[in-house]
Amino acid sequence: MPREIERKFLVADAGWRQAVSTSLRLRDGLLASVDGRKVRVRCLEDRAFLTVKGPREGISRDEFEYEIPLADGLAMLDHCQGATLEKTRHLVPFAGFEWSVDEYAPPLDGVILAEIELPAEDAVFARPPWLGREVTGRDEYRKITMLRARLARA
Amino acid sequence: MPREIERKFLVADAGWRQAVSTSLRLRDGLLASVDGRKVRVRCLEDRAFLTVKGPREGISRDEFEYEIPLADGLAMLDHCQGATLEKTRHLVPFAGFEWSVDEYAPPLDGVILAEIELPAEDAVFARPPWLGREVTGRDEYRKITMLRARLARA
C-alpha cells in the first residue's frame, strides 16, 4: 500500500530562494473529508491529480494518487468553492533530497512551509541552513486550520 | 462535464429475476463526503473504480469516474470500515434500456432498488411491469439513511 511519509517545517529565512530549481503554480481543492480521510483534487500547470489520503499515523499516512484529465480537475475545483488554495511550489534540492517550499497565495499570503517526503519514517536527512522549526502534525499548520483562522480575521 | 442522470424505483414484484442478463457482485465504500459532494470507491468483481459525485440537482449530478488498480480499491475499502455496502447488481434489459436491480447484502438485506441511467433529464423510457414506486431523491432511500436506520434497529 502506498504510504506518504512527510515532515513539515517553517522557514527561518529566505535563503532557499537562491537554490530553487523549479517553481510550479498549483491549485488544490478539498473535495471531501471524514474521520481523517480526505480526497483532494490538484491542478498543477496543465496536469491534474486526484488524491485519496488515509488518516495520519505519526508522520505517515496511506496515499493514493491518480492523474486525471485536466478538464475534470478544473471542473472539480469549481465544486470546491471556499475550500481551494493556491500556492507556488518551489523545488529546492539539498543534500540528495528535494524540498518543496510552498508559498501560499491569498487568503494565506505570507505563509511559507517547507516539506520533505521521506522513503522511511527513520530516514536521515540533512537540514538546510534556511530551515526553521518543525511543525509536522501540528494542528495550527494544517491548511484547513490556517484558512479558518485567516478567514475569521478577515 | 460528465453528468449522471439517474432515476431510482422500488420493485413491485420479483418479475425482474427472469430477465436478468448478468449479475455482478460489488462492494462500495464511502471515502468521504461534504456539502453533497461524495467520493466513493467501488470494487466490482476484479476491477475497482474511484468516483467523485457532485451535489444532486434534481435527478442529475456531476460524476467523474476513474478505474484504479484493484489492490488500491481493496485497501481503500479497508479504510471505510462501517461505511461499506455489499450488493449484487443484476442487469435487466428492457425496451432499449438496461436497468440495474440492486439486491443488498446484510445489513441492508431485503432492500432491492431498481435504477436507470438516462441520456437526458427528459428522456422517455418504458416502465417494466415489475417496476414499483419511484423514490428518486427520497432521503429515506439514500444508502446512508437506510444504513443508519438499520443499524439503529439492530
UniProtKB/TrEMBL annotation, chains A, B:
Q: Which domain of life is it from?
A: Bacteria
Q: Name one Pfam family in it.
A: CYTH
Query: Which InterPro entries does the record cross-reference, listed alphabetically?
Result: CYTH-like_dom_sf, CYTH_domain, NeuTTM/CthTTM-like
PROSITE patterns of this UniProt entry?
CYTH (PS51707)
Q: Locate the CYTH domain: which residues?
A: 2-150
Q: What is this protein called?
A: CYTH domain-containing protein
